[in-house]
Amino acid sequence: MDDAMVPLHSQRTTATKPFAREKIDSPNLQYQMTQECPIRVALRSSRQVLGLFAIVVLCVAAGQRVVAQRPETLQDASTSSVNQDKPWAVFRTPGLGDSQRSPFYRVEVQGQPADVYVTRPPAGDGRTDGAAFDRADRRSFSFATFQCGKAVDVKVQKLNGAFQQVRLRPSRKIGVDFDILQQDAQAGWVKIRVHKPGVKVSVEFIDQHFRQRRDLPRDALLLFADPMAEQHEQFLGGPAIDDDDIGYVTPGAKFASVQSKPVIVFPPGIHRIGDWKVPEGVQRIHLQGGAYVMGAIDARSVDGLMMTGSGILSGEDFPWRSQHGSDEPVMHDPWKTSIKLVDVGPDFKIQGVTLANAPHFVCNTFDHGGTIRNVKILGSWRWNNDGFDVPRNGIVEDCFVSAFDDAFKLYHDHAVVRNCVVWQMNNGAVFQLGWFGKNVSDVRVSHIDVIHTEYTGTNENWGLVSMARHDGAGVIEDFVFEDIVMEGPVARLIGLHLHESPKQKIRDMRFRDISVDRWLDPSDYNNIAETGNVPSQADPSGVTNVVGGDVQGLAFERLRVAGEFISQQNFQTTGRFTVIGSPEVSFPSDASSGDHPKSESRDARQD
Question: For the whole model, what pTM was predicted?
Answer without folding.
Answer: 0.84
